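The data are passed on as follows:
___
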Amino acid sequence: MSTMRAAVLTAPKRFELRDVPVPSVGPDDVLVRVTRTGICGTDIHIFNGHYAADQLPLIPGHEFCGTIAEMGTNVRHLAPGTRVVVDINIGCGTCFWCRRNEVLNCAEVTQVGIGRDGAFAEFVAVPARLAIPVEANIADEVLVLTEPLACVVRAARKARATFGQSVVIFGAGPIGNLHVQMMRLVGAAPIIVADLSAERSRMALEAGADAAVSDPAELKKTVLRMTGGRGADLVVESVGNRKLYEQAFDLTRRGGHIAFFGITSRGETVPLDILRTVLEETSLKGSVAGMGEDMHDALTLLSHGRFRTDDFTKASYSLENIQAAFDTLGERPHDLKTQIAIAA
């Protein structure tokens, strides 16, 4: 095949289905035949023109799985037909940051579906070293959760989340729900979720949260009541809202930690009481993308059924209906994840 079907985002909020050239494969690359791709919050930001607008026109899509269709001449560790997921973060591989698995800080970094064409298409070419073979018998609709779960794995690792910690999570959407499940898995308690959606709050409780607060006026009271008046050991902002980031400081105990996770518009800031932060030994850590071992760990967790995934696998659209899939996202709060079926 010389051409493939792809959904090209030509302008904010507008996809065009096009026949485009199949990506070329370099000697160290593989061509992945995409089977399924998930819609990520970052994809929504790109769709709305809030992120990576300078990259348009673009084929988005970075939460995906598929099979190896073609291999570069130097690739020896994979075989045609191998099922794979892909680490989307492409760095130089040799610099200080790449060696430390901090690829997003590499001067040459790009990301599949964000800085280069991605997986809302029949095929995508990626460096072979970033294609991870899937050995377990795991359904595609679960497999596409590997990349978003890897982001959550990394956030928990950066925050040093552990048993007995009290946690507040802003947001009960797909990533917020995964944060809840991750904190449950590491033994954090209590886990308190804040989200305006009653439906998603209910789903967060089913996923393992100890409390879900939909009324912002009740949040601080709930946190203090459930933490002995101290405030939370850890607060995770997974929405990307400046006001919630500000509120996180008010909910964190002295000596606590705030995980900066949700993406805001570029240049947004929050006021920081420097003296209070110093004296109370508050720690802050940013994290957004899973990479390297985060991806392998996420795949292992999914392969062994450590996460509830049913609420992530109910909404599926064809590539031809991708515009409708994006246009109706706000009308479907009960669908934690919307997936695009590319090939059988």
Notes: The chain has eleven helices and 17 strands. The first helix runs from residue 41 to 47. Residues 246 and 272 are 8 Å apart (CA to CA). The chain has two domains: 3-145+309-341, 150-286.
